[in-house]
From TrEMBL:
Protein name as annotated: Trehalose-6-phosphate synthase
One Pfam family here: Glyco_transf_20
InterPro entries: Glyco_trans_20
Family classification: Belongs to the glycosyltransferase 20 family.
Provenance organism: Microbispora siamensis
Length: 474
């Protein structure tokens, strides 16, 4: 019992890979949540509790006393939980990623899914066990009245479980995803709905990326749980306890990003991209290959744009980086294949000997992504639904004259909408028209909008975003 500030998240700041000779290699964990928080806890005493995600992680934990990877990394101390692989798989893949993620991003193809039968019940039991393991570890590690920052949809039950173990603690929960409206959230079985909502309400402070997601959560509490939601005061009261609701629109540390993007590895990727693209205009997108990112409709929109505007043939290139994600799930593997099929179709239809209209790359390469941002004339961000979308914020920082085509369903639209070309993510023709408008936007207009986009994107950098939430835990 020693830490005064603790973070809990499924994915941790580091991960390990097991090599053939049994050795372990360490690298940084990936994803928006991890990169934001890693920056915040750099060289601090904040204890980060996370799950072992792979055999490599489990190998590292087994060599570490109490699962504590202390002081070995600039992230500060880490405690990795060695949850049995089958339990972890059901909690992470089946419940968190295939159920809660799908509900909150409105991803179900409802004639076929979801289906909540006995199999789901076993998965749900594992989700409880997994959340319980976090609650127990946090209860063991937290000092009296410590502040515990629980992250995301993987850990919705942990706040209430932790409160039972340690009523002295000050607990926050933060959702990095959107939140579904009550009629969609109610696809979940009634008892599961109640457990998720009361799980989060176990926290003193429940944070969201936008007012829209916060409102949806409060609506769910009111409609599906019978809690009292005070929208003006942003509180939810249930069974005598009140949880404060916070809106914390995570932004980007502009200086750090600009410095990283000025490094030589990024410069050399820029040279490679310039050689490929020549003096043509560049439309860029950068995403995880994620169902909610709407990559296929984005490519279809580009295809429609090319069909409608032959004058652009040979004068524009679309660079689409769609790096791998959640490949344990069949839907994600199929989606990657669909993205590749669509790209091939565009190539077959339009490529000529000296013009490649589309360059699709499905490998992760951070410096190359930074290089693409810097060269972009247009950035396409068209998710079906997204908690925030930091790509939309990073782009304008690195390319001040880049026009942003942005889905109205991305959390970032709340701050960036006025200076973007907003699109309905399902409207392929509308997106095609927006791509054309973005390419032809006058230079001065690009710069004026770019300046305002950059300001909005850097308004709440991770450090302040985190401090505000700590301060909210009075
Ligand atoms: O949007 C929620 C989130 O946790 C992001 O912060 C992160 O980029 C993404 O999901 C990563 O998911 P996973 O850990 O499953 O790769």
């Amino acid at each position: 019992m020693s830490s005064t500030v603790l973070i809990a998240s499924n994915r941790g700041p580091v991960s390990f890979t097991l090599s053939d000779d049994g050795g372990l290699t360490m690298r940084r964990g990936g994803g928006g949540l991890v990169s934001g928080l890693s920056e915040v806890v750099k060289d601090t005493d904040v204890l980060w509790v996370c799950a072992a995600l792979s055999d490599g992680d489990r190998g590292a934990v087994r060599h570490a006393p109490g699962g504590r990877l202390d002081r070995a990394f600039e992230t500060g101390p880490i405690r990795m939980l060695d949850i049995p692989p089958a339990v972890f798989h059901r909690a992470y893949n089946a419940v968190a990623n295939s159920t809660l993620w799908f509900v909150n991003h409105l991803l179900y193809n409802t004639p076929f899914s979801p289906e909540f039968g006995t199999r789901f019940r076993r998965e749900w039991e594992s989700y409880r066990t997994y959340n319980g393991a976090f609650a127990l570890a946090l209860a063991e590690e937290a000092a009296h009245r410590a502040r515990v920052m629980v992250q995301d949809y993987h850990l919705t039950l942990t706040p209430a479980m932790l409160r039972v173990e340690r009523p002295d603690l000050r607990i926050a929960h933060f959702s990095h995803t959107p939140w579904a409206p009550p009629e969609y959230f109610a696809l979940l079985p009634e008892d599961v709905v109640a457990e998720v909502l009361t799980g989060i309400l176990g926290a003193d402070h429940a944070g969201f990326l936008t007012a829209r997601w916060a409102r949806a959560f409060m609506d769910c509490c009111e409609t599906l749980l019978g809690a009292r939601a005070d929208h003006a005061a942003r509180t939810v009261t249930y069974e005598g306890r009140t949880t404060r609701i916070g809106v914390h629109p995570l932004g980007v540390n502009g200086e750090a990003l600009l410095a990283r993007a000025g490094e030589p590895d990024v410069e050399s990727h820029m040279t490679v991209i310039r050689d490929l693209v020549g003096d043509r205009k560049l439309i860029v997108r950068i995403d995880r290959t994620e169902l909610s990112k709407n990559i296929v409709r984005g490519l279809r929109a580009y295809q429609e744009f090319l069909a409608a505007h032959p004058e652009w043939h040979g004068r524009v290139v679309h660079l689409a980086f769609a790096y791998p994600s959640r490949h344990d799930l069949p839907e994600y593997r199929e989606y990657t294949a669909a993205v590749q099929r669509c790209a091939k179709e565009i190539e077959d239809e339009y490529a000529t000997e000296d013009w490649d209209p589309l360059i699709l790359n499905v490998n992760d390469d951070y410096p190359r992504s930074l290089a693409a941002y810097r060269l972009a004339d247009v950035l396409l961000v068209n998710p079906i639904r997204d908690g925030m979308n930091l790509v939309a914020k990073e782009g304008p920082i690195l390319s001040p004259r880049c026009a942003l085509v942005l889905s109205r369903e991305a959390g970032a639209a709340a701050e960036l909408g006025a200076d973007s070309l907003l699109v309905n993510p399902y409207d392929v023709s509308g997106t095609a028209a927006a791509l054309h408008e973005a390419l032809t936007l006058p230079e001065q207009e690009r710069l004026t909008r770019g300046l305002r986009l950059r300001e909005a994107a850097t308004a709440l950098p991770p450090q302040r975003w985190f401090e505000d939430q700590l301060a909210a835990l009075i």
